[in-house]
């Protein structure tokens, strides 16, 4: 999937359920199921686990920065890569 498409997707789900430019956990899980089944399907990671990995500041929602990091990880092709990307991002904070 193109990264641009992922960005557009974020906008759609954000307007649907998010608030203040964030995706709620519920909206995020819905998006995973509907748009990115392969993201979950390729590993043993559940949507819950992926959400926890992505919600860096642990506020219970995914903001655009967190989403962008997910896209970067997704573009690299695997959840393992994504976890590395997230860890690096956290170190830099
Ligand atoms: Ca967050």
Automatic annotation (TrEMBL):
Residue intervals of the EF-hand domain: 42-77
Gene3D superfamilies xrefs: EF-hand
Record InterPro entries: EF-hand-dom_pair, EF_Hand_1_Ca_BS, EF_hand_dom
Database matches in PROSITE patterns: EF_HAND_1, EF_HAND_2
Keywords: Calcium, Metal-binding
Record GO terms (molecular function): calcium ion binding; calcium-dependent protein binding
Full protein name: Protein S100-G
């Amino acid at each position: 999937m193109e990264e641009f498409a992922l960005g557009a997707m974020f906008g759609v789900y954000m307007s649907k359920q998010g608030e203040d430019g964030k995706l709620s956990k519920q909206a995020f899980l819905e998006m995973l199921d509907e748009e990115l089944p392969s993201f979950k399907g390729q590993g043993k990671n559940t949507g819950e686990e992926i959400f926890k990995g992505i919600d860096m500041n642990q506020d219970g929602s995914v903001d655009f920065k967190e989403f962008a990091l997910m896209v970067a990880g997704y573009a690299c092709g695997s959840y393992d890569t994504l976890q590395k990307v997230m860890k690096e991002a956290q170190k830099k904070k």
